[in-house]
Amino acid sequence: MQNPVTVEVTRGNRVESRHRGMAVAVDGAGRIVFSAGDVEAGVFPRSACKAMQALPLIESGAADAFTLSARELALACSSHSGEDEHVATAAGMLQKAGHDLSVLECGAHWSSDQQTLIHQARTLERPTALHNNCSGKHSGFICTCVQSGWDPKGYVGYDHPLQAEIRAVMQALTGAVLDRDTCGTDGCSIPTYAVPLTGLAHGFARMLTGEGLSPARAAASRRLMEACMAEPFYVAGTKRACTRLMEVAPGKIFAKTGAEGVFVAALPEQGVALAVKCEDGTSRAAESMIYALIARFFEPGSETRDTLIAMANRPLSNWNGIHVGDIRVTDALFA
Amino acid sequence: MQNPVTVEVTRGNRVESRHRGMAVAVDGAGRIVFSAGDVEAGVFPRSACKAMQALPLIESGAADAFTLSARELALACSSHSGEDEHVATAAGMLQKAGHDLSVLECGAHWSSDQQTLIHQARTLERPTALHNNCSGKHSGFICTCVQSGWDPKGYVGYDHPLQAEIRAVMQALTGAVLDRDTCGTDGCSIPTYAVPLTGLAHGFARMLTGEGLSPARAAASRRLMEACMAEPFYVAGTKRACTRLMEVAPGKIFAKTGAEGVFVAALPEQGVALAVKCEDGTSRAAESMIYALIARFFEPGSETRDTLIAMANRPLSNWNGIHVGDIRVTDALFA
């Protein structure tokens, strides 16, 4: 199946580049309420599913035992930019669990946000594992291991009890079979599993609505999503897409990006969850796609919808600030 | 016309992302010797055509009048990383023409190369126009203006005599009509014109072979391409694709990238020029495409061909250095 062109990038009066992709919106019962492209194809959710991966942090009792704040829970679901507040918060989570950064197995990298990287270059010799965009998720993993009585060593491995627990949670939420065949290795070394885009969206719709979940899992899901919406800076960072999206309409949009052009969102008022994948893995397109898809679910004429449409169809400027073209979504997503 | 998938990005045993694109190889007479995708569609060459834009620097007599070195000529054709040597060389060119960086109209930006940006952040308050990746091209423009008796002010504008001259040169080389309709504004504020990919490749094939050119233009073309091949660091920078490509087989490959997934190359021994455009504008795909397309023109079993194939089909590692997948070209480009 051919995925449609969902985003065009113009220059002058020509289209310079085109992005294809798929997009789906699903309710708690699994009904598809919008779809474009091959939404049954397997997609690696990458970091977009971090809130799912954080469920054992709540369900194990670790979040309560270590009195994790909303900021800390948001950071456990985050792909942060490595700003000072992110790094300090991750360090604090590890300290509560009786560990320090030496326990982390995510690797280290400089920030991919330019302004943060400039700050890091001026204040650090080199980044540590705490600066890794996944350090909050990994610090949550350590809390879960300690609370569950699991030796954290090797916690990123497919056979570690933590990853087995995450696999079971994600399989129940998405309805997909997660095994060695569908498994790849993520940037931070944990397993990532290819799931149909519809299954990914349905999993978030279940988390959002609690439909088909135990009361405990429904409550844990709500707690994580509410923490992210309450502390959007801790889910991403300054000027980042997830943070900006959750600031557009506080409490009305949960959103999380993943590498290679994946983006998910969940809308509490509408009871639907959304997932997009840009076929070529480009963030600029995935961002426009999720902005436009979310906009469909807000009232025509509302400020939220107008803001989202303006984010989806945005001008591009050059180094002198001159308007040179636009990024715009096609009518495959928003007519 | 549907462009084929030319590059796949894998994770585990799945394809995670796909890039489509077009590719063409043309000889000096304009014969198409390889083609994939819609190679007659208009494409903005962006920085890929800088060697064409530098022809007036030679033809005006400025290069001789200001005794420009091979390094300076290479920098005039470059999209450099803003490393110290690039910045100093651009400043030297301006000084020879009796100007300084205040004459530049390209705007300023931090390096897009991470290691260079870290160095810049530690040594600079902020970048200047000399750090702009186009500062070598613009310094060449200033030399041309001074030699030609044109006031440099407004030299980036469509109606300035410099841009009119560049337009005439590029129209003659590519055979395309360059006018306000096909014109967009580039990142550094000069005009960029949509031309068919075949026309872009034919233009470079003419520069390479001299076919259909005046002796003076043929000599100027050869001089610029030879300068780039002799000083590949000054065309891009440390670890950059253009620099690495021209180091694979010194004197046998001219190569230049442009924004939004364009890449051109010219092969002196084979007398052909190549141009690719990744439909979605992604550099990783454009790089694999040009590596594979160049490889087709070297002998099976040769070191050059094997090196290029290995560059085109390369492993991807995560933050811990673990092999997580591959970038690979499809048989649309290389069977």
Task: Tell me what you see in this structure.
- Chains A, B: InterPro entries: Asparaginase_II (IPR010349).
- Two copies of one chain form a homodimer.
- Chain A has helices spanning 50-53, 55-59, 62-65, 70-76, 84-96, 114-123, 135-148, 161-174, 197-209, 215-230, 241-248, 283-295, 303-312; strands at residues 5-11, 14-27, 32-36, 42-43, 183-185, 191-193, 195-196, 254-258, 262-267, 272-278, 314-317, 323-329.
- Chain A is of the alpha+beta class and 335 residues long.
- The first copy, chain A, has one domain (5-333): Beta-lactamase, CATH 3.40.710.
- In chain A, strands 1, 2, 3, 8, 9, 10, 11 and 12 form an eight-stranded antiparallel beta sheet that branches.
- The two termini of chain A are 22 Å apart.
- Chains A and B meet through β2, α6 and β5 of A and β2, β4, α6 and β5 of B.
